[in-house]
Every structure is written in structure tokens, then in C-alpha cells.
Amino acid sequence: MPQARWPVPTGGRRVQRRHPHAPIPLLAALLSALVPGLGQLYTGRRRLGVVVLAATAPLLLLAVVASRLGPLALLPLLLRPSVLVGLLALDLALALIRLGCVVDAFRSAQLRRGPPPGGRYAAPLVGLALIAAATVAPHVAAGYYDVQAYRLLSSVAGAPAGEPATWLQRDRASVLLLGGDAGPGRVGLRTDTMIVASVQRTSGAVALFGLPRNLTRVPLPGRAAAAFACGCFPQPLNALYGWAHAHPALFPGGPDPGATALVGAAQELLGIPIDHYALVDLSGFVDVIDALGGVAVDVDERVRDRLSPATPGGPWRSFDIQPGRRHLDGQAALAYARSRRATSDYDRMRRQRCLLAALARQADPATLLRAVPRLVPLVQRSVATDVPTRDLPALARLAAKARRDRVATLGLTPPRFAPTRDAAGYPVVDVPAVRAAVGQTLQHPEPDRAGAEAPATGCG
Q1: Has residue 360 been placed in a domain?
Q2: Between these two residues, 112 and 376, which has the higher pLDDT value?
Q3: What is the pTM of this model?
Q4: CB-based contacts of 110: which residues, under 8 Å, 6+ apart?
Q5: Which of 68, 94, 401, 458 has the lowest CB atom count within 10 Å?
């Protein structure tokens, strides 16, 4: 005779049975973390799972397409503030949807499975919290980068309203890159580094023209030419920035009279349109190099120098850069680019162009995107430019077309481009010779035909 089983008293409370074969709550949460809606299908809520999958499938497909395109193709799109705002909203919405699906799948599975043994919910809840944190972490990171990129775009000076971007209708765009020597112990700013970078849209050929800081009698643009009998700037070119700031009425049309003056003078000298400028000071140069993880340079000749501090209170540092392939941090790169203790200004110009080319080769879009959080405050503090926000996508597309294997460099150095000297001993520029060489370089960028310096790996 079977023995009778008596119910255990429960004090009037209903006891919920556990179902060992019911869905596992943490597994359901994990599935929804991986693919929203998958956890709902696992717990038997097929209709909800199908709806969520159908709603998120286009976003997943978009993410796959974006990953296949890569950062280079996406960069022009990401340089639009309206796109960044839309992506931030989409990122927030997707984070909430994914988090809701994770919690819902966990809760649904837990209700079907019943309470854990002894009512010990701590371990499952800790697991749920970890899965939830892993779910939202990529969205938090994406949102942070989105906000930083928006801050970076907002710090870029805009062109006057209604001004047409004429360079978009040309096959070539040119930018004047300026390095200023403002820093501790220096009065004012003198642009000791002046390089015009020009990119051809159709071929991707790049030309770098180095303007010596001590060139004199460089022609001036517009009404500024009437300030001197020669129609030119009689002092060394690196003094034009400060002189223009003392006479801003002669250089209208830009937020920085000094940079506007140099752009105009470079246009008159080279005989080509220059569309924008970018100015970076010493401390900014050091920090940008460090933010990008340094720069690798093939050094041909030993460079020894003692460098003054780029920031207030910084120490003087001695550098001895030996020949060979060297990975330089910001301070070493600055010493390498500025040293002229045992060499001339023109050797220094060649190293600067070489360093710029090395940075262009190494600063790929993926590296730039990783460095965005560090670059944003640096750009806001140390970089000035007149590039309007609306032109950034087009500039990014043009930069993507630049051929790293087709870079011609030309230093406008004496005696070829400045055969005579003025009373103070400064070289006087030969404008017709400069324009002829620039035209030849742009038409035939191969170094042997243009008479340009070969884009060798060595930097001397």
C-alpha cells in the first residue's frame, strides 16, 4: 500500500514551483545582449522576439556595411555636425532598446523558471548587471567619441555666411600650414614653419612647397601691396604675421589678419590659389605628435640640439638623434624639426617637410579616431584655422584621395629661388623663378621632371 504524502504547511502562502527545464535567465539576457530579440525567442515569446529582430535588423545591417566601408569612407560623413547629432540620438535609442531587451528576457525566463534555490537572487542579479554593463558600454564609448567629435567641429572657425566654396569647383585644393614659435620667453608669434600642401583631385598627386622664413620682398596681396613702394614685404617673411596684426585693415576677410596676410602673400608668390590655412604653436605641435603615438622617421644625418621648453615651466632638454629609423615623441620631433645648430635653415625646412610627410603616412583615419579624445582639447587650445565646418567633408574626401606614393616636395631656397640678398643680408626672392618651378611641379609631379626634391624616405 503506497504511503500517503502529506502537504507541508506553508502558512497560507502559495509556493511557486521551479521548473528545471525552463529557460535559463542569464542565458536569455546574454542572447538579447548579442542580438536584440533573440532572448525573447529563447524564452518562448516569439511574437515579441520577431518584432524586435525586425526593428533592429536594419541597424545591424547598417553596422555591417559601415564596418566593411571602413573609417576612411565614413570620415566625410562623420564630419557633419547634423550627422553627429543624429548618430548620438540613434546611439542612445539603440542602447535603451538593447538594455530593455536584456532585462525583459531575464525577467521572462526567471518567471518561467521560478525562484532560485533558497530565494538567493544575488548571484543572478550580479550576472544581469554585468551583462547589462557590457551591453551599454559600447554605446557609452560611441557617445563619448561622438560628443568629442562634435566639440572638435564646433571649435573650427566658419567662413562668412553665404561665401561660396570656390575650391570645390577646382581640380586642386591647397592649404597653408603654419608653425608658430609663440612660447615661453618669446614675444609675439613668428611663423618659422610655412608649408603649402596642394592635392590634385583627379590624380591624388601631392605637392609640398616650403617657404623659407627669411625670404624678403615677397609680393603682398590687394591693398596691402600699396603699403610699400615695391608692392612687397621688405622684411623676412616670418615677420609678416605680426606686421599684419599691427595693420589689420590691410588684410580683411579672415578671423586672423596675420594668417590672412600669409595666405595672400603665398598666393602671390606661388601663383596658385590657397584655400585655407592651419596654424599650430609649439606646445600644440608637441601634444599632437604625442596624441598620435609619436612619429617614425628615417633620419639620414645626426641631429643634436638643446630645445627650449614648449610650455611654461618646462625643462630644457638635449637631444641627440642618430641616423636610422627613429620613433620620435613630441619633444624629439620638435627638436628634429627646429634644430639648426649644426645645419642651415634650409636643412631644417627639408626635415620639416619630411616630418610632415611621415605624419601623413602614419596618421590614418583609424589612428585619428582613436586619438580624438586627446586631440579635441589640443586643437581647441593650440590650432587655429579658417576651414568652415561645411568644407570639412569635402576636404576629408580629397585627403582620402591623396597618393602617399606621389608626394613631390620643393623648397624655395637660395640660390635657385633667391639669387641676391638685400642690405641686411636676407635672400631676395625671385618671383618668376618660383612661379615657373611651382607650375612645373604641379603639371609634372615626378621629381626628375619638376626639378623638385625627391620624396625619399630619408629625412637628413
Answers
A1: yes
A2: 112
A3: 0.70
A4: 25, 124
A5: 68
Give Cα separations from 119 to 18, 110, 111, 115, 359 (angstroms).
11, 12, 13, 6, 61
252-273 b/e (C-beta count within 10 Å ≥ 16 → b): eebebbbbbbbbbbbbbbbbbe
At residue 17 the predicted structure's pLDDT band, cuts being 50, 70 and 90, is: low
Residue 324 sits in the same domain as residue 384: yes
Read off the C-alpha cell for 293: 603615438
Total structural domains in the chain? 2
In angstroms, the CA 165 to CA 393 distance is 12
Alpha-carbon torsion, ordered 385, 391, 393, 396, to 10 deg: -50
Length of the chain as a residue count: 460
Residue 308: inside a domain: yes
Strands 295-299, 420-421: pairing is unpaired
- What's the one-letter identity of residue 459? C
247 Cβ contact list (under 8 Å, min separation 6): 224, 227, 257
Q: What is the pLDDT of residue 105?
A: 93
Distance, first Cα to last Cα, the chain? 103
- If asked whether residues 139 and 186 sit together in one domain, one would say no
Q: Are residues 268 and 147 in the same domain?
A: no
- What's the CATH code of the domain at 376? 3.40.630.190
Does residue 58 share a domain with residue 135? Answer: yes
Q: What distance in Å separates the CA atoms of residue 239 and residue 243, rounded to the nearest whole number?
A: 6
> What is the average per-residue pLDDT within 2-24?
52
Q: Is residue 8 part of a domain?
A: no
Asked whether residue 18 carries a pLDDT value surpassing 80, the answer given is no
The pLDDT of residue 266 is above 90: yes
| Residue 207: strand pairing partners | 198, 408
**Percent of the chain topping pLDDT 70:** 80
* Mean model confidence pLDDT for the chain: 80
pLDDT tens across 197-249, in order?
998 888 888 888 989 888 999 999 988 999 999 999 999 998 999 999 999 99
Q: CA-CA distance, 153 to 84, in Å (whole number)?
A: 10
Residue 205 lies in a domain: yes
Longest dimension (CA), the chain: 128
**Of residues 188 and 106, more confidently modeled:** 106
Domain of 51?
A: 25-154
